[in-house]
Structures are given as structure tokens and as C-alpha cells.
Design a protein that fits this description.
Layout lengths: L5 E2 L4 E2 H13 L4 H24 L22 H35 L5 H13 L2 H12 L5 H9 L12 H25 L3 H9 L4 H12 L1 H17 L2 H6 L9 H9 L10 H26 L27
Antiparallel strand pairs: 1-2
Helix pairs in contact: 2-13, 3-7, 3-10, 4-7, 7-10, 8-9, 10-13, 12-13
């Protein structure tokens, strides 16, 4: 055996030393997840620091000096009267829409014996991989106030000038955003719902509770952390997506939100002389603030994890609800 194959520190072959090191690392199961999780964490911290840094530099991230001029955006009445209210309507509206559809669909496909379950689950997964701008274009082609197919059909059949329902507003953005994020929310809720102990629901049924009451008083409280997590994820994604508001209402500035305002801050046009990195950084910070508040409440919820035990132990066997049409309210 050559000297290159000898570990001089341990006096044993290098391959043996490597196997011992891997064995020692695997003996501590927290080391590998910690090492893997540290990589994206470092990038997240660096990107967040860079975004905050750009709000204090005069023009470019590499420009020397410091300034607070970009933070004058906080004194703009348009920001507080239009942009932030529109952003909050989009965020909370998307949460309401996605939970309204994702919750019942998850219960039907996970906890009941509804026919074609695998086919419907596949459809939900396929909808999730369709880009948001494609879904937005579909809604524009259907319900746009000028070119929407449904709008044109209704106007041709009835003596009215336009279809009474318009997608070209902040409520239309919230509707499309909620439906766009519904498949992701579905899978966030479906997993914990599948792991719920059926003995808890059976005990409620023995006590005389109907299926609706059992769902409201047993299932929903146990699913609360998952619902909160799904709502926070939906809210954070809704206020940061640019494609949906840009396509639904266009880039004319009629319905501005933080995502479109950030775009205009960094869009320099043909000359590229009006790029405002500092203003874009300020808008990004404004996006992070409500997300941080939401995460705070989420950690408050999971801090009481002993109140939400949805996974059982020995004898656990998930059971689907049969004959869902005969439930007694």
C-alpha cells in the first residue's frame, strides 16, 4: 500500500477513515439535515440583507454612500390609500377563495368514497403545474369586460352594454389568485387530514353528533395548524405574484399592488435610465412585513402542538366516509 493511501493522522487506510467518519455522522441524525438546511438558509439571509441594503444606497447596489431618500415612499399618500389596500384585498381574498374550495375538495377526495378519486387527484395535480399566467389568460379570455367570450355572448343575447361581472379589478385578481393557489393549498391540507385518527370521529358519532357537527367540532380544531399554515403560504404567495395582476388588469396602473409597483420601479424602459433599485427594495420590505406577522401567529399556533394531535399510534387505520349523501345535519 502506498503512502498516498495512508491516513497520516490516524495511521489507517483513507477509505477506512472515510467510512468511520460517515458512520459517525450518520450516528448523529441531526447533522445531515442541519448541513443541508444551512445552505438555503444562508442564501435567504444574504438575499434579505441585500434587499435591505439596496434601500440605503443612492442608486445602484455597488454605488458607495448611504441615503434615506428611497424611504420617502412611505410618505406617499397613494401608497397608503391605494397600493397597500389593494394588496391586502388580494392577499386575504385569495386566502378566502382558496380555503373555500380546497377544504371541501380535500375532504371529498381524502376522507370519502367518492368515485374516480385517483382521476380527480390527478386533475388537481395537473392544475397545479400550469403556470399562473396561463390560468390568468384563460380568465381574461372568458370574463374580460371587452374581449371576454362570456361577456360577448351575454351582450349579444340580452339588451345590455356589458357583462355585469368584470374581472378587471382587485376582486378579480383575488378570485383568480385564489383559484390559482388552490391546488397547493389542497395538498397542504390533504396530508394532515388523511392522518386524522378515525376513532375521534367515531366517538363523536357515538355521542350523537352528526357528520357536519363532527367536522366542525372535531375535525376542524385538529386541522387548525394545517389550515393556518396553508393560509399563510397562500397570503405570502398572493401578494408577491406579479403575473396575475399584470394580466388581469394590465400594466396601466389602474389597480396597483406591491408586486406591480416593484416591477415599475425596476423597469427602465428602452433607455434603462429610470431603474430604481432602492424603491424596489422598499416595496420588497413592505411585502416581508405582513409575511413576518403571519409567521409569528403561525409559530404561536404550533407552540401549542399538544392541542392538535392528529396522528395516532397502535391500531391506527384510516377509514373513509361512505354514503356521504345520507349525512344528518
Amino acid at each position: 500500500m502506498t503512502e498516498q493511501a495512508i491516513d497520516l493522522k490516524r495511521g489507517m487506510p483513507a477509505a477506512t477513515s472515510l467510512r468511520q467518519w460517515l458512520g459517525a455522522a450518520l450516528a448523529r441524525p441531526y447533522l445531515l439535515p442541519l448541513a443541508v438546511g444551512a445552505v438555503p438558509l444562508v442564501f435567504v439571509v444574504l438575499l434579505s440583507a441585500l434587499v435591505l441594503y439596496t434601500t440605503f444606497v443612492p442608486r445602484l447596489p455597488t454605488t458607495p454612500g448611504w441615503t434615506l431618500a428611497h424611504w420617502r415612499l412611505l410618505a406617499d399618500p397613494h401608497l397608503w390609500a391605494v397600493v397597500l389596500p389593494n394588496t391586502l384585498i388580494v392577499g386575504f381574498g385569495a386566502v378566502a377563495v382558496t380555503l373555500f374550495f380546497a377544504g371541501p375538495i380535500a375532504w371529498l377526495l381524502v376522507r370519502t368514497t367518492i368515485p374516480f378519486k385517483n382521476f380527480l387527484l390527478t386533475c388537481v395535480a395537473l392544475v397545479m403545474v400550469i403556470p399562473p399566467f396561463v390560468k390568468s389568460m384563460g380568465w381574461v379570455l372568458m370574463l374580460n369586460e371587452r374581449i371576454g367570450i362570456i361577456n360577448r355572448i351575454v351582450v349579444s343575447l340580452f339588451p345590455i352594454d356589458s357583462f355585469p361581472v368584470s374581472m378587471n379589478n382587485v376582486w378579480g385578481i383575488a378570485w383568480v389568485m385564489g383559484l390559482t393557489l388552490m391546488p397547493t393549498t389542497f395538498f397542504l391540507i390533504a396530508g394532515p387530514m388523511r392522518q386524522m385518527d378515525p376513532a375521534l370521529e367515531e366517538a363523536a358519532s357515538i355521542c350523537g353528533a352528526s357528520r357536519v357537527k363532527t367536522l366542525l367540532h372535531v375535525g376542524m380544531p385538529l386541522m387548525w395548524p394545517s389550515i393556518v399554515a396553508a393560509a399563510i403560504f397562500t397570503f405570502m404567495t398572493a401578494i408577491s405574484l406579479f403575473e396575475v395582476p399584470a394580466i388581469i388588469v394590465g400594466l396601466g396602473g389602474s389597480t396597483p399592488v406591491l408586486a406591480t409597483e416593484m416591477f415599475f420601479a425596476v423597469y427602465g424602459g428602452d433607455s434603462g435610465t429610470t431603474i430604481r433599485y432602492g424603491a424596489a427594495g422598499v416595496y420588497a420590505v413592505l411585502m416581508m412585513v405582513p409575511c413576518g406577522v403571519g409567521l409569528y401567529f403561525y409559530f404561536k399556533v404550533i407552540g401549542k402542538a399538544h392541542r392538535f394531535r392528529v396522528v395516532t399510534g397502535k391500531g391506527y387505520r384510516p377509514r373513509d366516509v361512505e354514503k356521504i349523501g345520507r349525512a344528518h345535519v
